[in-house]
Amino acid sequence: MSKQLRKALTDELHRRHGYKVMEAKIKPVHIANALMRSEHQCVGRMTVLEQLFVATLPKNSMDARINAVRSMLDSQRDRWGALGQSSDIKSSLLMTKVLPLIRTLLGTDGAAFGNSPEFSSFSSPTALTVTGDPSDDGAGAFVHRLWGAHDVAVRLPILDLLAELSSPDKDPAHMDDLSALLAPLVDSTKKRQPAVVTAEDLGSGYSPLEEALRSAANCLCAYERKLNPNPIASLQRVVLLAALSVFMHAATRAHERAGHPARILLLDASGDHYSAIAQASTRCVTQLINDACNYMVSVLDDLLTAQILDWPSAPLAAINSLFESVGQAPLEANNPLVRRIEEIVQDNTDLDEVRREVAEELLRQAEGTSRRGLDGYLRLLGIRSGFLYPTQKNPNKRLNPADRMLEVLVATTIDVSAQPMEYRDFLELLRQKWAIVVGGRVEDAALLAHLGATVPVRLLSENSERFLSRLESLGLARRLADSVAVVGLLEATHE
């Protein structure tokens, strides 16, 4: 029964947004793989890489592993030079060191596994190693469309940057070191038509949230062009922005659809899990996640309303009609959910209460004990993209960005064509663009108190100072005389 509900929810969310959010499995590398696949419209021909996978999977027999290496050498011995000349493959440097190292490099995000690369997503900066892995559940194609895809009128320059950074047609002499290492492992590429995104969200122009995310992409592209950094570092930031865009879109659509302002998020720079700052930041993130849960309840309400307009007066009939509409069997009379729905109807004379309680019960059934829903999706994506913390299974997350994600937040907030801005002006822009505060503005305490996250002004001021120090350590801020600090691209190069 939970499978029936999950399918109905998954299909509806996919219809609305263009990506699925009912499986807590997504990683930025999945989005990167799908984003490059959408942009270049290709996947790699990976016969040699498949042999490498077989050769480096410990659970395979030694004979199978040796035979895979032998087949690989037979097809391209000249590419391996002296590494391929050993008469004892089992103890060769190629078998024991080089091939396992390459596999480790490809799988740094834990998305490369098994005997075949086909359904893996690689930690790779080149589209030569793009696969057909569907684990992004449409998120990569969504971002590609958000950034303009192949519509010249709305295509953003960040897609041109992505194409340049990851092009499968690069001259090896101009490749980064990792791409040059991986290129010989791919025979060529083959065409792959991009997924068609027909989401309601992107069907008729861009919403204010989507326009804000597009503006952030323009800022990051300008930052990368100005910086001209290591191409791998640049691609990492592009991918992190893609992941952050999916996170923010999924987390805030409920508020935007209802016409409410974005939730304020407090960035925790305290370094203390038990501090008042950390607790307030956790409260902010929890409220954001709760919005996602409430949104799921409203989606279920919409689905039932589409079956029977006044469905709270006949909830079981509406539920069975919903199941049948997605090709699922109706509920049997002895199903525990039937008894639970009947209890809700008996206990409430107010149809609005029936509406709320039934939808909430259906959401619990759909998510199961593992909380496999939008809230779990957001927690996992937030952690894996370096936006939320801590990383362990503790469900209480706070906003404490990793260094690379913090750089993305700065890069998408500042104007690199202008002079570095004063710190206080940067904090105001950070609130405007990302709804993030750190405590350095006079208004921050009141904003947080309104959310029920009361923090003494003194602690907020200290948090702001620590945040500034962190920006300084990353080369993104500098303290000047007279208690003035500036934020911006302060160095000619920065990795």
What does this structure look like?
There is one protein chain. It contains 19 helices and nine strands. By secondary structure, it is mostly helical. It has a domain at 2-245. The strands form four sheets. It has a three-stranded antiparallel beta sheet. The chain starts with a helix and ends in an 8-residue tail after the last strand.
Please sum up the structure shown.
This protein is 55% helix and 5% strand. The protein is mainly α and 495 residues long. α1 (2-17) packs across α11 and α1 (2-17) packs across α14.
Summarize the topology.
Elements: H1 2-17, H2 28-40, E1 42-45, H3 47-56, H4 62-80, H5 93-106, H6 139-146, H7 157-166, H8 177-182, E2 188-191, H9 208-227, H10 231-257, E3 265-266, H11 276-307, H12 315-325, H13 336-347, H14 351-367, H15 374-384, E4 388-389, E5 398-399, H16 403-411, E6 421-422, H17 423-434, E7 436-437, H18 444-450, H19 457-473, E8 477-479, E9 485-487
Parallel strand pairs: 3-7
Antiparallel strand pairs: 1-2, 4-5, 6-9, 8-9
Helix pairs in contact: 1-11, 1-14, 2-6, 2-10, 3-4, 3-5, 6-10, 7-10, 9-10, 10-11, 10-15, 10-16, 11-12, 11-14, 11-15, 13-14
Question: Descriptors for this entry?
Answer:
495 residues; 9 strands; mainly alpha; single chain; 19 helices; two-stranded antiparallel sheet; three-stranded antiparallel beta sheet
Biggest sheet: strand arrangement: 6-9-8
Query: In percent terms, what proportion of residues is strand?
Result: under 5%
> What is the approximate shape?
globular
- Spans with pLDDT under 50 lasting ≥5 residues? none
Averaging pLDDT over every residue, what do you get? Answer: 91
Which sequence of SSEs, written as H and E, runs from N to C?
HHEHHHHHHEHHEHHHHHEEHEHEHHEE
